[in-house]
Amino acid sequence: MNQLMIFLGPPGAGKGTQAVTLCEERQLTQLSTGDMLRGHVKSGSDLGKQAKILMDKGELVPDDLIVAMVGSELEKYEANSIRILFDGFPRTTAQAEALDQLLAKHEAELETVLLLEVEEEELVQRLLGRAQEQGRSDDNEETIRNRMKVYSSQTQPLIAYYKGTGKLKRVNGLGSMEEVAQRIKITLS
Ligand code: B4P
What we know:
It is built from nine helices and five strands. The protein is α/β, with parallel strands linked by helices. Helix 6 (about 120-135) packs across helix 7. The model has no long low-confidence stretch (mean pLDDT about 95). Bound molecules: BIS(adenosine)-5'-tetraphosphate. BIS(adenosine)-5'-tetraphosphate binds near residues 13, 33, 130 and 138. The site of BIS(adenosine)-5'-tetraphosphate has 30 residues, from helix 1, helix 2, helix 3, helix 6 and helix 9.
């Protein structure tokens, strides 16, 4: 049976972190557009070369490239067996509208949109911490601040978009990873 969810939230809110736990619990596939793009950067594909320049500045990769990437991923599923947690997608209203069309084509429906909420200063500290551990090229303070601005202007409008569908659920992302995971579990029960 289909089950489709979205993790929405600012950079560093814990989407990727919590997606792993949730996917394990619910036998979902984590579809992280960020991870997919980093895969392209690593392999040196044309998309990767284009994406790296934008990602390093904290800008979004163009909608048409992202939608094509997600669309071809959805093609891999048999009818009525799509079990996906979208992590970091959609990030713009155009992407959300394209996702609606893709899902209509596959006769699938979104179940829940989880919004992980964390205040900006905590987000910056987390991402600077990750920079020390993993050395991701977009985890420096200047790029992080720009990612926050891009989130406010381009991704935050999705909160109203999904609120309108009645599928939006808010989760406080502050606290330990276990505490947040527990809150998500309760919110979905
Ligand atoms: P992403 O890979 O989605 O990057 P992110 O927003 O930083 O990831 P996330 O929010 O999942 O990080 P997490 O909280 O897990 O995107 C990177 C770039 O790719 C974008 O800037 C953009 O350029 C491009 N891109 C991706 N998708 C796109 C799209 N759809 N359209 C256009 N462009 C797109 O982890 C953050 C840190 O916090 C970790 O170190 C973690 O250990 C820590 N953490 C997590 N939970 C915590 C907790 N409860 N307490 C303390 N620390 C915690």
